[in-house]
C-alpha cells in the first residue's frame, strides 16, 4: 500500500470539504436570521480545522503522482467517505444546540450518503427539533446531501481532470455508474459533464420551487436534497409543511417529478445531450422503474382510500408522493405510512430494498440488478427443459456475460446476508431499550438502502436520536456501506489490502 498516495488524495478531499463548509459559513454571515452568529463561528472554525488536517495530509503525501493504482483508488474511496463524514460532523458538535460525537457522526454520514435518517426530532416540543437549529447549520446539512448525491469523489475526479492525474479507479469504485458506456479516455470528461447536468437540474428545481412561493432559502435547501434524493428538510414536518398550502399538491408533484428524474441514470441525460437517441430507446431500466412507480401507486391507493376513508384522488396523491419518495430513497414525508394497511407496508418494504436505477443518486439494490435477476431466473427455468437453447441477455442494450450475471446474484445474496446480520446486531445493541425486530429491521433497511425513515420506533414520525451511541455509529457505517454498494468499504477489512509493496 502506497500511503503517500492515500495521504495526498485524502488531504485534497478534506480541503474540498473545508471550502464547502466555509461557503455555508459565509451564508450564515450574511443571513439576517437571529442565531446564525453561532452557526457562522462553528462553520468557520470547523472549516479551519478540516483544512488544517487536509494540509497536513497533503504535506505527508508530497511528490509527483501520475496515476492512482486500483488498490489505492478503492482505499481512497472507502476511507474518503468515512473521513468526510467524520469531518462533516464538526459543525454539529461545535454549534448550538450541540450534539455529542456519535449522533453528530450519524447526522453527517446520513447527509453525505444521502440517507436522510436523522437524530433530530420533528416534534417542536423537543429540545433537539429541526427548527431549533440555526439556518447556517441546516444549510450545511443540505449541502452535505447535495455533495454526496452525485458523489463528492466524482466532483474530485472532475477536478483531477485539470491536474492530469489518473482517476478511473475513483470513478468506478465511488459510484454505481456503468462505466462500460463511457470510454476510459473520457472518464474525467464524463465526470465533469455529470456535475454540470447535476447543477443544471438543481437550479431548475430551485427556480420552480421559488416560483411556487417558497423562500429562496427553502427552495435551495429542498432543491439540494431532492436532486440528491437525500430527503433532509429544514422543517419539522418535512414536505408535509406545504401540504395544506393552496398549491401544496403542485409542490409535491414538482418534488416527486425530480425524485423520478434523479432516480434514473444521469448518463441517460448525458447521452441525450450528445443526441444519442438510440440509447434512449434502449433504456430498459428507466422504463421498468417508471412502471414500478405507477403500478405500486395504483395498487396502494385502493387500499389506502378504503382503510383511511378518504377520496381516491387524495389517496392517489399521498401514495404517488410516498412511492416516489421511498423508491428513490429520498425519504421526504407528507403522511405517516405506518398507519396504512399491512399489504401496503409490504410493498413499501420491497420498494425500500429495490431503490432507483444504476448511475442515479438513489440507493437500494438498484433496478438493473432486479432485471438481471429476473432474466437469469427465466434463463435457468427454461434451461431445465431446453438445456441446449442459447440465450443472449441484454440490459439497456448492453450484453451480459455469465460473469456479470454471477456478480449480480452474488451482490444480492451478500446484500441480503448483511441485512439479516445487521438486524440481529441492532436488536442486540438495543436490547436494553426493548427495541422490537420490526423496528430493528426498519432501522437497518432505512440506513443500508439509504432511505431515511424506517418502521416502528424509527418510522416517518420518529427519529434515530433515542438509539444507543454504538447503534448510531454502526448504522452510520451501514449508510456509507450502502452508498458505496458494499465492496469499496468491505475491502478495507481485508488484511492483504494493506500489505506494503
From TrEMBL:
TM stretches of this protein: 44-62, 74-94, 143-163, 193-212, 253-274, 286-305, 343-365, 409-429, 473-498
Pfam family, one: TrkH
Superkingdom in the source lineage: Bacteria
Subcellular location(s) of the protein: Cell inner membrane
GO cellular component, one term: plasma membrane
PANTHER family according to UniProt: TRK SYSTEM POTASSIUM UPTAKE PROTEIN TRKG-RELATED (PTHR32024)
Designated name of the protein: TrkH family potassium uptake protein
